[in-house]
Design a protein that fits this description.
The complex is a heterotrimer.
Chain A (H helix, E strand, L loop, with lengths): L6 H9 L18 E6 L3 H13 L5 E4 L15 E2 L9 H18 L10 E5 L2 H16 L5 E4 H7 L14 E5 L3 E2 L2 H14 L3 E3 L4 E7 L2 E7 L2 E10 L5 H6 L7 E13 L7 E3 L6 E4 L4 E12 L7 H14 L7 E13 L5 E4 L5 E5 L5 H18 L13 H4 L16
Parallel strand pairs in A: 1-2, 1-11, 2-8, 4-13, 11-18
Antiparallel strand pairs in A: 3-7, 4-6, 5-6, 9-10, 10-11, 12-15, 12-16, 13-14, 14-15, 17-18
Helix pairs in contact in A: 2-6, 2-9, 3-9
Chain B lengths: L9 E10 L2 E7 L3 H7 L6 E2 L6 E2 L12 E4 L6 E5 L9 E5 L13 H4 L19 H13 L14 E13 L3 H12 L4 E4 L13 E4 L2 E7 L3 E6 L15 E13 L3 E3 L12 E3 H9 L8 E6 L5 H9 L3 E7 L6 H9 L4 E3 L2 E7 L3 E7 L5 E5 L2 E5 L2 E3 L12 E3 L4 E3 L7 E3 L26 E3 L4 E2 H9 L5 H8 L12 H12 L3 H4 L11 E2 H5 L11 E2 L3 H6 L3 E5 L2 E6 L7 H14 L2 E4 L4 E6 L3 H8 L11 E8 L5 E11 L2 E6 L4 H15 L6 E4 L4 E7 L3 H8 L16 E6 L3 E6 L8 E7 L3 H12 L5 E2 L2 H10 L38 H4 L4 E8 L11 E4 L11 E9 L4 E9 L8 E6 L4 E8 L14
Parallel strand pairs in B: 1-7, 8-9, 8-13, 9-10, 13-26, 15-22, 16-17, 16-22, 17-18, 30-32, 33-43
Antiparallel strand pairs in B: 1-2, 3-4, 5-6, 5-7, 11-12, 12-13, 14-23, 19-20, 20-21, 24-25, 27-28, 31-32, 33-39, 34-37, 34-38, 35-36, 36-37, 39-42, 40-41, 41-42, 44-47, 44-49, 45-46, 45-48, 46-47, 48-49
Helix pairs in contact in B: 5-6, 8-9, 8-10, 14-19, 17-18
Chain C lengths: L1 E4 L3 E4 L4 E5 L14 H8 L7 E7 L7 E7 L5 E6 H9 L1
Antiparallel strand pairs in C: 1-2, 3-4, 4-5, 5-6
Classes of the chains: A alpha/beta, B alpha+beta, C alpha+beta.
Chain lengths: ~425, ~950, ~90
């Protein structure tokens, strides 16, 4: 049986027909009372369980997943990591996440292909340049790498953009070299395997159907596999956050929206960085396998159907052609949708809920993937110590009542515009 | 080899083409695949991971192997399925994913090392040292991965898009589809018939819109279907003004799915060698294209359906060495057909392996009694049954259901309005089938997903490691994730997982298909929207006038506005400085049409404005204008502008250029949804009225010359913030507003949009004696910063009224949008950054928007961040750089020296905090 | 998705803009204080996985606000009403 992954274990197994590999995680069933139940076997839930087991006192931990683990946003996103945030509530958190990404694979002994290829935000106007300068300076103040490229520097780096005939001329770009991509599924699998090795029960096909409270305290969950008692319950349900929180009578400042993602046929290396169009809704990177992975804006209406419609598909492809007219003959091979838990200010919530012993990790909008390690770390911290982690202290639920919103885009309480 | 007769090819029209530089000939009607086979070329490509030699598996859009780079240069199309390329004169195709050549591919070493490259190997290694991933491992992996090469040049072809509407959309023009279309049409329905193949003579219907070469690639909500018509892909280049492809949004009340079925390969060792083909494809090449894919075939089957392939082969010049029927007892259909052509049948037997290097040379048959029989052959025609093409049925999340009788998934729930017919519904396929998902001992060379090199062994490994859920299997092994999206692989893979876990296929899962059905060019989905046509361009009414004066234009949202009017030898700064000084000292004009203009009328118009704006409106007299501030309901600033009362019940509102549409939508919302009882109506008149600002000490002098004499524009009668209807230039209706963005004595004159250019010219003529100067958005921006007016950079959606110094505009006497939440603690916090002016201590330092502000002696860390520069300009009036900023406690810090920190542009200097109003603080100039 | 505008007939999704939940009501004479009632109105949503009443705007059309009743699970539209009429009914 093989526990440790390495080039040596791969070679040894190659020579004996791969008979020694164990399941990456046990197929656990619920047993007894848990110290912590995490509802949601996606990236954030699995990372939370892993860091709870690794960073805090010995606990019995279960992760409950209604389907197969990693079937939500962790397995449907466009794999981008970055910490190029503007506002004080966000920048330290996402930079903490970036640092965790940088050591993740060695920590969990799983190659998630963290690839710091650089993230470019293209600039098309003077006002946009100033806005990106503001953001870049804010990043620098937070100890995050940021560079402002002028037109010549950008052209040298990515010569294939439409510099000659663009409707919105290209002026330069904000670059974060440490940003990049990660193989999304591998993050879920890697955390699951690492958490499993630390004794976490990962229970798939176990849908939570009710949250049991006694005297205002959460004490357990009803599931499709029976009642499971837990001393503390953490919700990490992404697009289904509202639905699950409602089981405890909680209403959230969240709408669920569909975000589409797209992948092209596999082609030889063409696009080296993550590139974001500044005059439309389009961003793109190329996977190690060769597919161009791209996306744009959310479809814009509440949805729980993991698919989108043609206007957004057209909008995304128009953005792609406007920025990179070489893409005309590249072919879209698959598009799909995921359900985003869009908050009213575009920033997440990691906080205690109004129900005692019930904790919230929700509202990741379409930024949840890059946050996975820090979200898990900070949520684990909150659950274990009953106080927020320093870098996640702005992600409070009461910020809406008090006005301390964290609105990077400045569009207000309109989830579909964040 | 080409057959002497038969097929749909036109032997009178030979066509020349090249493959890997070799000149070859086919006929009109050929596909690239049939023409290659006619030229006895079997090795066409290399696989994704192991670079194994691959040939032509199918004759349709499901092809996983025969992918080529079609065309050259900017038109190069990687991963093009040879089976779907209509042959045209001058066609150029190259094999891909091989180095240095197709025959001798160095990376075929991967195949030898395949034990190391089993499913998921990369998740387990390449972790140490961490820094080697981006530097060493990943570049190697990326270089080896990928299939063909995309062009790195702009696509030279064009694309179109459009809508089609019909009662019935028939998808697939096979016999069943044609019949359905015909029946619907004679019933009076509007019918569209789409088919991915070239035009067929078999389809001849007057009352049906027939779209050949058109793939319906996806089903969307509300009876909407996406389709791509390949208008010119069968030509060497599109004809002049012809698009390469056309993207259709088809809206159909009903649809008929007549997409047929796709054949399943058999899973045995070396089943990927060139020459191992789907039986139906072999039949198609013989009957449709008059090509024998080889000389001697072995047929490997498990159902009756391949009898016709057997007949086609045996009746052609091909020899059929044997029929290997995996069923315990072959059926009469097969036995009789074999007997008719004297072909031996091995029942209860399987092909254990194929042998050959770059093409199949023979097979080893494991007979019912365990013996091994070998046959030499250059074609293995295989059929493991057929899968209905039900992809479109699952695009709206409906799941197909497993039909044990035919061992295939068939449609169950369907998108609203869709019916499935024929083979797509599972009719008349897989008669007497005994499923054979893989032959015994299928090993690491028995391929399930050909393109991605997923083998039977990989699926067993996935099971062993716990990747059992269909999606885990898919993602861990990459099964079904190649360009063919597993059309020939998914069901076999699912069934193999079912075998490995001891479950049934339906217990294991269902296949779920995502659009598009076949890959779609991004260019088609973008349609014509690229380059300058990416978004519409809005031109101001004075555009041609400004152009004639040599203006440089700037994109402002969708608008193009004159940015500055350079004289010979002037750069943007020199021109801007000259324009600013001209306005400050004499007079200038600027087109301000782009500001949103909304005409508001009704008895409750004033009441309505009270709801919208934070400040008071009921006391505004007719003929007067007022500055207004709008909040969003969350209490942050939404927009600002002036609104003039030009009649008892008639107002004209202006908004910022950027928010014109948003504000109009907001007004409609507030009226229709929040205050429907108010009797008020409004309409956008931004495009109906041209509006020109006339500003400078001589503004009135110029104005007097164009406003008709009946109107008194003296300061006493038409003072600051006056507004009203006038006539100009001898009777032309106009609206006159005494507003000033520049801080000078200024007016805005609005005329019907068609007179915009004429008004500009008239003002220039009238102002000539005063040295009138046209100015653009740059000078406009400089003057507004000099006057400390907040604009887009300050109204960024994150600022409150207090931040911008507008706290006094929040009425305490009435309800308005945003009132309650503007009173939240965070928005009232005195520490919030608020608007100040900045002046560099050293006047040669240049302020830039986006620089951050720190206490002058503070360390540059986030905790010390106190605000940022929102707008900065060079003020020719003052002779140095000035800026607006929002700064913590800013209002009480005038006179303080602070640090302007802009590390991203290598700038770091000191500036003095000053009032945001740099020029004419008393406002005497604008009242002059 | 296609929406049947009561004024213009059935039109494609690209003509419309989405606003959000139509079941929350602006506090009438709710006062100047940022009460929980106001926070609930502006920020908190039921966000059901099922039937949802929501506001759409016929942006490239008649500029009517519409109350659309739609199933969020499958995007099927059950009813479209003029928001103005609904609002008038509500306030009378």
């Amino acid at each position: 049986m093989v526990d440790k992954y390495s080039v040596f274990s791969v070679m040894r197994e190659a020579l004996r027909g791969h008979t020694g590999w164990r399941p990456a995680w046990r197929d656990a069933s619920p047993v007894g009372v848990y110290d912590v139940i995490i509802v949601g076997g996606g990236g954030h839930g699995l990372a939370t369980a892993y860091y709870l087991a690794k960073n805090h006192q010995r606990m019995r931990i279960a992760v409950l997943e209604k389907g197969w683990l990693g079937n939500g946003s962790i397995g449907r996103n466009t794999t981008i990591i970055r910490s190029n945030y503007l506002l004080p509530g966000n920048a330290p958190f996402y930079e903490f996440s970036m640092k965790l990404w940088e050591g993740l694979e060695q920590d969990i002994n799983y190659n998630a292909m963290v690839s710091q290829r650089g993230v470019l935000n293209i600039i098309h106007s003077d006002a946009q340049r100033d806005a990106y300068a503001r953001r870049g300076n804010s990043m620098r103040l937070n100890g995050i790498d940021a560079e402002l490229l002028d037109l010549a520097a950008l052209r040298a780096k990515v010569p294939y953009l439409d510099y000659e005939n663009a409707r919105f001329p290209i002026q330069g770009a904000l670059l974060q070299r440490r940003g990049g991509t990660v193989r999304h599924d591998a993050v879920a699998w890697g955390y699951a395997r690492a958490a499993d090795h630390l004794g976490v029960d990962i229970i798939q096909n176990c849908e939570v159907t009710g949250i049991k409270t006694e005297n205002g305290k959460a004490v357990g969950v009803e599931t499709t596999r029976g009642y499971i008692a837990g001393k503390k319950i953490g919700l990490a349900c992404a697009g289904n956050s509202s639905r699950v929180a409602a089981m405890a009578g909680i209403r959230l400042p969240i709408e669920s929206h569909a975000l589409q993602a797209f992948v092209s046929e596999s082609i030889k290396p063409l696009i080296d960085n993550v590139i974001t169009f500044g005059a439309g809704h389009f961003y793109i990177s190329q996977s190690d396998k060769g597919g161009l992975v791209f996306g744009g804006d959310i479809d814009g209406y509440n949805s729980y159907a993991s698919r989108g419609n043609l206007p957004t598909i057209e909008d995304v492809c128009e953005g792609g052609m406007a920025l990179m007219p070489m893409l005309g003959r590249a072919r879209l091979v698959r598009h799909w949708g995921g359900i985003m838990d869009m908050t009213m200010d575009g920033s997440p919530i990691i906080d205690k809920s109004p129900v005692e012993n019930l904790y919230l990790n929700a509202g990741w909008c379409y930024g949840g993937f890059k946050a996975t390690p820090a979200s898990g770390w900070c949520f684990a911290h909150l659950i274990a110590r009953d106080e927020p982690h320093e870098v996640a202290s702005a992600y409070r639920l009461d910020r809406f009542a008090k006005g301390y919103v964290i609105d990077e885009k400045g569009v207000g309480a309109t989830p579909n515009l964040h | 080899m080409r057959l002497s007769h038969g097929g749909i090819i036109d032997r009178s029209k030979p066509i020349n083409f090249t493959f890997d530089g070799r000149s070859l000939q086919g006929y009109a009607g050929d596909t690239l695949a049939s023409a290659l086979l006619a030229n006895d070329i079997k090795l066409v490509g290399r696989s994704f991971k192991y670079h194994r030699p691959r040939g032509i598996l199918s004759a349709g859009s499901e092809e996983p192997n025969a992918l080529v780079e079609l065309r050259m240069g900017a038109r190069r199309e990687p991963n093009t399925r040879a089976t779907m390329v209509e042959l045209y004169e001058g066609l150029v195709a190259h094999s891909q994913n091989r180095f240095p050549s197709l025959q001798h591919d160095l990376l075929s070493i991967n195949g030898k090392l395949s034990p190391f490259f089993a499913a998921g190997f990369y998740y387990k290694t390449f972790m140490w040292p961490a820094s080697f991933w981006e530097k060493l491992y990943e570049p190697l992996i990326r270089k080896a991965a990928g299939l063909g090469r995309n062009a790195a040049l702009p696509d030279p072809d064009t694309y179109e898009s459009g809508h089609l509407f019909c009662d019935v959309l028939v998808i697939g023009a096979g016999a069943v589809g044609v019949k359905a279309a015909h029946e619907a049409a004679i019933g009076g329905a509007r019918v569209i018939l789409c088919d991915e193949q070239p035009p067929s003579d078999a389809v001849d219907m007057q009352n049906v819109k027939y779209l050949p070469r058109t793939t319906v690639f996806g089903v969307y909500d509300g009876g909407t279907y996406g389709a791509v018509e390949r208008v010119a892909d069968h030509l060497v280049v599109p004809a002049p003004h012809q698009p390469r492809q056309r993207y259709w949004r088809i809206v159909a009340k009903r649809s008929v799915l007549a997409t047929g079925a796709i054949e399943r390969p058999m899973v045995f060792t070396n089943n990927d060698l060139p020459g191992v083909m789907l039986a139906g494809a072999v039949e198609t090449y013989i009957t449709r294209y008059a090509v024998a894919p080889g000389a001697r075939a072995v047929l490997f089957i498990n159902h009756d359906g391949a009898a016709s392939a057997l007949a086609a082969m045996a009746a052609s010049v091909m020899a059929v060495a044997a029929v290997v029927d995996a069923r315990p007892a072959s059926s009469a259909v097969i036995r009789d057909m074999a007997a008719a052509f004297s072909v031996p049948v091995f029942s209860g037997a399987v092909i254990r392996r194929a042998v050959g290097k770059l093409a199949v040379e023979g097979v080893e048959i494991c007979t019912r009694d365990g013996g091994v029989v070998r046959f030499g052959c250059d074609v293995v025609a295989m059929s493991g049954g057929w899968n209905p093409v039900l992809h479109l049925t699952s695009h709206l999340d409906d799941k197909p259901v497993w039909d044990d009788a035919i061992a295939a998934f068939v449609p169950d729930g369907l998108p609203p309005g869709m019916t499935a017919v024929g083979a797509a519904a599972g009719e008349e396929i897989n008669q007497n089938i005994t499923p054979l998902w893989s032959v015994p001992d299928a090993d690491a060379k028995a391929f399930v997903d050909f393109q991605n090199d997923v083998t039977a062994a990989d699926i067993r490994l996935a099971k062993q490691e716990g990747f059992i859920a269909v999606e885990h299997l898919k993602r861990y092994t990459t099964l079904g994730m190649a360009t063919d999206q597993g059309k020939t692989a998914n069901v076999n893979g699912l069934a193999l997982m079912a075998m490995a876990t001891g479950k049934t296929v339906p217990e294991t899962g269902t296949t779920r298909f995502r659009p598009p059905y076949t890959p779609v060019a991004l260019g088609a989905l973008a349609g014509p929207h690229r380059g300058k046509l990416f978004k519409p361009t809005r031109l101001t009414p004075t555009h041609e006038w400004a152009k004639s004066l040599g203006a440089v234009f700037v994109e402002t949202g969708l608008w193009l506005r004159a940015q500055y009017f350079p004289k010979p030898g002037e750069d943007w700064l020199a021109a801007t400085n000259r324009e600013v000084l001209a306005v400050r000292q004499r007079v200038g004009i600027c087109d301000v049409t782009t500001l949103g203009k909304i005409d508001i009328q009704g008895p409750d118009a004033a009441k309505f404005l009270e709801c919208i704006y934070t400040n008071s409106w009921t006391n505004l007299a007719v003929g007067r204008a007022r500055y207004g501030l709008m909040l969003r309901e969350d209490g942050f600033v939404m927009d600002d502008g002036t609104t003039a009362r030009i009649g008892e019940q008639h107002y004209v509102m202006t908004t910022t250029t950027a928010n014109a549409g948003k504000v109009f939508q907001h007004l409609e919302f507030c009226h229709q949804w929040l205050w429907p009882e108010l009797d008020v109506r409004f309409i956008s008149i931004t495009d109906q009225w041209a509006q020109i600002a006339l500003a400078g000490p001589h503004a009135r002098d110029v104005l007097r010359k164009i406003v008709d004499e009946a109107y008194d524009v003296s300061n006493a009668v038409f003072g600051y913030m006056a507004a009203g209807d006038v006539t100009i230039c001898g009777g032309t209706s106009a609206r006159l507003f005494r507003l000033s963005f520049s801080g000078e004595l200024a007016y805005e004159i609005a005329v019907p949009a068609r007179f915009g250019g004429a008004l500009a010219a008239a003002l220039m003529a009238a102002g000539a004696e005063f040295g009138i100067t046209p100015y653009g958005t740059e000078a406009l921006g400089v003057m507004r910063v000099e006057k400390g007016h907040p604009a887009g950079n300050e109204l960024n959606g994150q600022t409150s009224a207090h931040d911008l110094g507008f706290g006094k505009l929040l009425s305490k006497k009435k309800d308005f949008i945003g009132r309650a939440l503007a009173a939240r603690p965070a928005l009232m916090d005195s520490a919030r950054p608020n608007l100040v002016g900045l002046k560099p201590v050293n006047e040669s330092d240049r302020l830039r928007g986006g620089a951050h502000l720190l206490a002058h002696d503070a360390e540059p860390v986030a905790a010390n961040d106190q605000g940022h520069v929102t707008s900065a300009v060079y003020s020719p009036t003052l002779g140095h750089s000035i800026g607006l900023a929002i700064l913590k406690h800013g209002a009480s810090r005038h006179g303080e020296i602070i640090r302007v920190y802009d590390p991203i542009r290598n700038s770091d200097f000191l500036a003095e905090v000053v009032s945001p109003v740099f020029y004419d603080v008393q406002g005497s100039r604008l009242h002059a | 998705m296609r929406i049947h505008c009561p004024h213009c007939g059935e039109r494609g999704l690209q003509e419309f803009l989405y606003h959000g939940d139509a079941t929350v009501t602006r506090p009438r004479d709710g006062g100047a204080e940022p009460t929980p009632e106001w926070t609930d109105y502006v920020y908190f949503r039921e966000n059901p996985n099922g039937v949802h009443r929501e506001l759409w705007y016929h942006n490239v059309g008649c500029h009517a606000w519409l109350v659309v009743t739609r199933n969020l699970r499958n995007h099927q539209i059950m009813a479209v009403e003029s928001a103005y009429d609904v609002a008038l009914g509500r306030s009378s």
